[in-house]
């Protein structure tokens, strides 16, 4: 996005803030659908956890997406945004049976990833169709915290537990209408993904009433110019062909489902923060901004890399800076980055800030969460206001008189 547009948005709405480009989201959605054009029935279910603003969800609905949700609150957000229950799949991990029953009561599709809850749910609600999340025991993903398909993962039912799974299905008489996996995020090796897919195809043969097979997502996006990314076109060609062949073997046209989150919104997002101080030490020049990992935690949490540019001085001489936040502990966005010369008051832009950025923001240090703005059809639209002190205190309860200060009599001479 043009630096002048970014500066204008920061000037109009104030920094720090998140800005999302609806056209980039649209182009990513269309790119993925084109990659799998050979598949007669394709369904993309946007992963709400990546970015859950209602305006973004409504944009996804306009594009034709369904929703992948991981909490009952995300389910309710989807319904509030206008999605019908059948357009939403609920894929939680480690939640109570009551939360699954609440989701089923709302009419959304259910995805279960452990034998204990599968047996309980099937015994009580055999009439409710259920998808099963399989753990294919395939290690994939760009970081240990986002690799979720390996043997030690808490996610999914192990492929080695298939006999036990089939026994539960047989005894409860429940209907399995889908099979699902998710190996991890930031996947580069398509062959690893295809290998895991074969495990899913083999598992699917055990169930004769399937409507869909969900292959998760995890497609890697570029984080800087020239960075490597998942070749979704090659994946679409290879997996699409294999999926069509499997449907012929299975004797039924199934839906090929994905649950992209980062792929759709990461590159569409920009985080804008103002420089409070430029601090020279004996070995480092720090650029301290009016933000921290309370707003953008990925660099500290995952070691994620976000390209940082100075949109206030795009043509300036480049120098090396460590960009840090105002949180009172180690709070580093990037170390020794080559950035156009920074002055106090400049606006820095963090790219790839659409996915798992605002959605993981907090009020740590009692700081306010930033605003969100959508750039749509050439105009900036505020889609979440900056928080205020009232937002910090809104749900805190002060029992009347419990800690009232004692009255003190002061004698004035």
From TrEMBL:
Its cofactor is pyridoxal 5'-phosphate. Pyridoxal 5'-phosphate binds at residues 218, 356. It catalyses: meso-2,6-diaminopimelate + H(+) = L-lysine + CO2. Its EC number is 4.1.1.20. The modification N6-(pyridoxal phosphate)lysine is found at residue 49. Substrate binds at residues 298, 302, 329, 356. CDD domains: PLPDE_III_DapDC. Residues 25-266 form the Orn/DAP/Arg decarboxylase 2 N-terminal domain. Pfam families: Orn_Arg_deC_N. The keyword Lyase applies. Pathway: Amino-acid biosynthesis; L-lysine biosynthesis via DAP pathway; L-lysine from DL-2,6-diaminopimelate: step 1/1. Signal peptide: none annotated. GO terms for molecular function: diaminopimelate decarboxylase activity. HAMAP family: LysA. Homodimer. Belongs to the Orn/Lys/Arg decarboxylase class-II family. LysA subfamily. Specifically catalyzes the decarboxylation of meso-diaminopimelate (meso-DAP) to L-lysine. This is Diaminopimelate decarboxylase. It comes from Robiginitalea aurantiaca.
